C-alpha cells in the first residue's frame, strides 16, 4: 500500500501534469508553436512527455505537404521520429531500468539515423517537389 505522503505527492504530480497539459493544448489550439523540447529534471516526467508530444504534433501539422505520398510521408515522419527521440531522452532522465535505458538509447540512435536518411531523400528529390 502507498503511504499518505506518496499519495499526496502523486496527486500533486497529476495536478501539475494536467495544468501543463491544458497549457500545451491551449497553445496548440491557437496555432502557436510550442517551445523547443528540453530534456531536464526540472520538470516531472509527465510534463516532459507532454512537451515532446506537443512539439511532435505541431511539427507534423506544420510539415510542408505537396500531395505526393512519398514526400508527405517523409515530411511528417521527421517530426514524428524527433518526438520519439525526445521521449527517449526524457525516460533516460527518470528511469534506471537497464532494459528501458538500452531501448531508449537504441531509439535515439536509430531515429536519428532515419531522420538523416529522410533529409537526404528530400535533398535528392528536390525538397518540396519530391514524389
Automatic annotation (TrEMBL):
<protein>
    <recommendedName>
        <fullName>DUF305 domain-containing protein</fullName>
    </recommendedName>
</protein>
<feature type="region of interest" description="Disordered">
    <location>
        <begin position="1"/>
        <end position="23"/>
    </location>
</feature>
<dbReference type="InterPro" id="IPR012347">
    <property type="entry name" value="Ferritin-like"/>
</dbReference>
<dbReference type="InterPro" id="IPR005183">
    <property type="entry name" value="DUF305_CopM-like"/>
</dbReference>
<feature type="compositionally biased region" description="Polar residues">
    <location>
        <begin position="1"/>
        <end position="15"/>
    </location>
</feature>
<dbReference type="Pfam" id="PF03713">
    <property type="entry name" value="DUF305"/>
</dbReference>
<feature type="domain" description="DUF305">
    <location>
        <begin position="72"/>
        <end position="127"/>
    </location>
</feature>
Amino acid at each position: 500500500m502507498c503511504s499518505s505522503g506518496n499519495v499526496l505527492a502523486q496527486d500533486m504530480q497529476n495536478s501539475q501534469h494536467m495544468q501543463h497539459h491544458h497549457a500545451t493544448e491551449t497553445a496548440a489550439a491557437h496555432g502557436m508553436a510550442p517551445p523547443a523540447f528540453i530534456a531536464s529534471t526540472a520538470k516531472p516526467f509527465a510534463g516532459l512527455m507532454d512537451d515532446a508530444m506537443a512539439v511532435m504534433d505541431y511539427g507534423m501539422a506544420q510539415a510542408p505537404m505537396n500531395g505526393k505520398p512519398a514526400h508527405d510521408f517523409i515530411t511528417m515522419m521527421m517530426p514524428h521520429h524527433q518526438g520519439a527521440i525526445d521521449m527517449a531522452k526524457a525516460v533516460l532522465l527518470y528511469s534506471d531500468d537497464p532494459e528501458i535505458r538500452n531501448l531508449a538509447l537504441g531509439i535515439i540512435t536509430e531515429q536519428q539515423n532515419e531522420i538523416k536518411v529522410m533529409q537526404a531523400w528530400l535533398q535528392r528529390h528536390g525538397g518540396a517537389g519530391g514524389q
